[in-house]
Amino acid sequence: MPVKFTLNGKPASADVDSSTPILWTLRDTLGMTGTKFGCGMAMCGACTVHLNGQAIRSCITPISAAQGQKIDTIEAQAADKVGKAVEDAWVRNDVAQCGYCQSGQIMSATALLKSNRRPSDADIDAAMAGNICRCGTYARIRAAIHDAAKNLSA
């Protein structure tokens, strides 16, 4: 029986085993390859998507959890005011180096700014703690989040 949900604002369904992780449903079944596989154990954050507005690790969350729910991926962030502000700040602050982790980083940053428009460094560190960047761009990530927050409040 297909799992039905909303994907990036549009009705979607996937006829996969209900235990299939959201990550593989997105990538392999629906062709949404912006969400990345990193560790497969919810420890690196590369697979972060939003489920009903909350940042989740899609590599360990079964698609059954999305039944009747709303999933947003990196592909939809440019159409969202906060997501667009984060993406623009990422470019202005030259955050990406290799870029592999960036979709997960952006999704976590967007979730943070949707719930806290004036995050402190400690708030940012807490929200981003589960996102690993092998290139070590953490200072630029923090600067970009502050930049996006400033632009959203202007």
TrEMBL record:
Q: Which SUPFAM superfamilies match?
A: 2Fe-2S ferredoxin-like, CO dehydrogenase ISP C-domain like
Which GO MF terms does the UniProt record name? Answer: 2 iron, 2 sulfur cluster binding; isoquinoline 1-oxidoreductase activity; metal ion binding
User: In its keyword annotation, does this UniProt entry include S-adenosyl-L-methionine?
Assistant: no
Enzyme Commission designation: 1.3.99.16
What keywords were assigned to this record? Answer: 2Fe-2S, Iron, Iron-sulfur, Metal-binding, Oxidoreductase
Q: Does the keyword Transport apply?
A: no
Domain 2Fe-2S ferredoxin-type, residue spans: 1-77
Which InterPro entries does the record associate with it?
2Fe-2S-bd, 2Fe-2S-bd_dom_sf, 2Fe-2S_ferredoxin-like_sf, 2Fe-2S_ferredoxin-type, 2Fe2S_fd_BS, Beta-grasp_dom_sf, Diverse_Oxidoreductases
Q: Under what name is this protein listed?
A: Isoquinoline 1-oxidoreductase subunit alpha
